[in-house]
Design a protein that fits this description.
Residues 135-210 form the Ig-like domain. 6% of the residues lie in helices and 48% in strands. The chain is mainly β. A hairpin with a 4-residue loop joins strand 34 and strand 35.
Length: 537
C-alpha cells in the first residue's frame, strides 16, 4: 500500500513538469517582432553636409542590443555613408534630390525567455540646397601694412576669418556681406562662410599676397659720378624700382642692377622698392645713402718763386663727399684712409695726405690714389694731378695826364690786377706811402699824389697767385732843352704858307705836360697843349 502511494506521488510530479515544459516550448515557438526606429540629429539637412542618423529598437532596452549587428545601406539616391555598421552613421547627400537609407539588425534578440524578430527600417530624405557663395578682394597683392576690402554674395548672413602664413585662424568681426581686413604684413588667406535661410552654408576663400621690402645696402661709396645700384626684391616682388624720394618723386630706373647718376639724386639718397610687374604693386621704399666721393689734389705751400716762374711746392689730397661711414664689415676701421702718390711714370713716391713735390718749373704730372677701408677696401682710380708753376705778368704800359691827375695802366690779362704804388722822397730815400689796386687800370689821384720832384710811381700787374710783374717806374722828367730841338715843316719858311714847329724827341714824355709856352725873338709868345705850334702865313 505504501509503495503504491510513492509511485502515485512521483507520477503527479512528473506530469506537472511536463505541463510546464510544454508551456515554455509553446512560448518560444511563438517569437515576437520589434521595429527599428531611425532618428536624425537635426531637422535641417543640407547638400554636401553629413547628417547623423541613429537606430533604436522599439520596446527593447539598449542593454539587450548588440550595436555591431546594425547594418546600413543607401537604397536610392546619390550619397555616401560614414560607416555601414553601428548604431549611428553619417549620411551625406551629394545633391538636393536626396534618397532613401535602410538599416537592418542581424539576428534576433531574446529578453527573459522572449525572442524578438527585428524588422528593418527605411527613411527618405530631401536635403536643402546650399547657397551659391561668391567672394572677392579689392586687391590680391598689397604692400606690407596695407588692408584690403572683402566682399561676399549669395547668402543671407556670413562669418569671416583669416589665416596668416605664420599659422592660426582669426575671426573678422561682422556678419555682413563686406568687411575690411586688418593691416597685412604676410601672405594671408581670407575665408567667408555664407548661410541661406535654411541654415545651409558654403565657404569660399581668397589669398592675398604681401610684397615685402627690397634688400639693399644702407650705404654705398663710389669714386665716380655714377654707380651700379643693386638690390634684391622682397617676397612676391619680381624686380625693383628706384626713386629719388621716399614717396612720390621721380622713377629713376627699374631693375635689380641699374646705373644711378649723382645728378639724379636729392641729398645723395636713392629709394628702392620691390615691384611686381604682373600686379603693378610695389612695396614701401628703402633708402640707400650714396657717397659720391671726389678725390681733389691741390697745391699747398707754394714758394713765391713757384708762383712767378717755378720753385718748390707741396701737394695735398682732399676728399670731398665722404661721410666716413663707408659700408664695410662691422669691426673694420670705417675712418681708415690710405693715400698714394706717384710720379709721371706711375712709380710710388709717397703715402701721406700731404707731400713735398720738389721744384716744379713749367708743368709736371703726378698721380694720386685713395683707398677707403681695410677689410673690403674701396679704391679710386689713378687720378692725374698736373702741377703748373706760375708765370710773371708782363709790365704794364702807362699814360699819365697832367702830372698824375689821371694815370692809366694797360696790358693786364683776365684775372690780373693793376697796382699803382706811390712813393715819396725823404732825404734822398724813397718810401712807399700808398698801394692802390684797380681792375680797370684807371687811377684818379689827388693833387698831393701827383708827380713832382718828391713824388713818383711804381706800376705793376699782379696775377691771381700773387706774382707781380717787373715794376714800371713813373717820374716827372727833367726838361733839359739841350736834349731837344725844334723842327720845322716845311724846313724853309715860304711866303703864303703855314709853318709848323714841333719839339723833337719828346714823344715818350709829352703826356707829362699839359701846356707848352713858345716865344719868338721879336717878343711874340704862344701857348699850346701839344708839343707843336702852327704859325700862320
Amino acid at each position: 500500500m505504501r509503495h503504491y502511494q510513492e509511485v502515485l506521488k512521483w507520477s503527479r510530479i512528473t506530469g506537472l513538469l511536463l505541463i510546464l515544459w510544454g508551456a515554455m516550448a509553446l512560448q518560444f515557438a511563438q517569437a515576437q517582432s520589434r521595429n527599428i526606429l531611425i532618428g536624425q540629429a537635426s531637422s535641417i539637412e543640407c547638400v554636401g553636409q553629413s547628417m547623423m542618423y541613429t537606430a533604436e529598437i522599439s520596446g527593447i532596452e539598449e542593454m539587450h542590443i548588440d550595436f555591431s549587428k546594425y547594418s546600413w545601406s543607401i537604397v536610392s539616391g546619390n550619397g555616401t555613408l560614414s560607416s555601414r555598421s553601428g548604431r549611428t552613421v553619417g549620411v551625406t547627400w551629394n545633391d538636393n534630390n536626396g534618397g532613401v537609407i535602410r538599416v537592418i539588425y542581424a539576428g534576433q534578440i531574446t529578453v527573459e525567455m522572449t525572442t524578438y524578430n527585428i524588422t528593418p527600417a527605411t527613411k527618405s530624405s530631401v536635403p536643402h540646397p546650399n547657397p551659391s557663395v561668391g567672394m572677392s578682394a579689392s586687391q590680391t597683392m598689397v604692400a606690407a601694412g596695407a588692408a584690403v576690402s572683402l566682399s561676399a554674395s549669395g547668402g543671407t548672413s556670413y562669418s569671416w576669418t583669416y589665416q596668416p602664413a605664420s599659422g592660426g585662424i582669426y575671426p573678422i568681426g561682422g556678419s555682413g556681406s563686406s568687411v575690411t581686413s586688418p593691416a597685412l604684413y604676410q601672405n594671408t588667406t581670407f575665408n567667408v562662410t555664407g548661410y541661406n535661410a535654411a541654415g545651409c552654408a558654403s565657404s569660399r576663400s581668397v589669398a592675398v599676397k604681401v610684397i615685402k621690402k627690397a634688400s639693399v645696402a644702407s650705404q654705398v661709396t663710389t669714386f665716380n659720378n655714377t654707380y651700379n645700384a643693386q638690390a634684391t626684391p622682397g617676397a612676391n616682388g619680381t624686380t625693383c624700382r628706384w626713386y629719388n624720394a621716399a614717396t612720390g618723386g621721380t622713377l629713376l630706373a627699374q631693375g635689380t642692377s641699374v646705373t644711378i647718376a649723382s645728378s639724379q639724386l636729392i641729398n645723395s639718397t636713392v629709394h628702392v622698392a620691390s615691384y611686381n610687374t604682373t600686379s603693378g604693386v610695389e612695396s614701401a621704399r628703402v633708402p640707400q645713402k650714396v657717397d659720391f666721393v671726389r678725390v681733389l689734389p691741390v697745391i699747398v705751400n707754394a714758394s713765391p718763386s713757384f708762383l712767378c716762374g717755378g720753385g718748390e711746392v707741396s701737394g695735398k689730397i682732399n676728399i670731398n663727399g665722404w661721410t666716413n661711414q663707408v659700408n664695410i664689415p662691422e669691426g673694420d676701421d670705417a675712418g681708415n684712409i690710405t693715400y698714394e702718390w706717384f710720379n709721371a711714370s706711375q712709380q710710388a713716391i709717397g703715402s701721406s695726405q700731404q707731400l713735398f713735390l720738389g721744384s716744379v718749373y713749367g708743368s709736371k704730372t703726378f698721380y694720386v690714389r685713395v683707398t677707403l677701408g681695410i677689410n673690403n677696401p674701396i679704391s679710386s682710380p689713378l687720378i692725374p694731378f698736373v702741377v703748373t708753376s706760375g708765370t710773371q705778368p708782363n709790365p704794364p704800359a702807362y699814360q699819365v695826364n697832367n702830372c698824375g691827375e689821371t694815370v692809366t695802366l694797360t696790358g693786364a690779362n683776365a684775372g690780373e690786377t693793376y697796382h699803382l704804388i706811390i712813393e715819396e722822397r725823404e732825404m734822398d730815400t724813397w718810401h712807399q706811402v700808398a698801394n692802390i689796386s684797380s681792375t680797370t687800370g684807371v687811377f684818379n689821384l689827388t693833387s698831393a699824389e701827383r708827380l713832382s720832384s718828391t713824388i713818383r710811381y711804381q706800376a705793376k700787374i699782379a696775377n691771381g697767385g700773387g706774382c707781380y710783374s717787373v715794376p714800371q717806374s713813373i717820374a716827372t722828367p727833367t726838361f733839359d732843352l739841350s736834349n731837344y730841338s725844334i723842327g720845322k715843316n716845311p724846313s724853309a719858311a715860304q711866303c703864303g704858307s703855314d709853318l709848323t714847329l714841333s719839339i723833337n724827341n719828346i714823344q715818350g714824355y709829352a703826356h707829362f705836360y699839359s701846356e707848352y709856352l713858345w716865344a719868338t725873338s721879336n717878343g711874340r709868345s704862344f701857348t699850346t697843349t701839344v708839343p707843336t705850334l702852327v704859325l700862320p702865313q
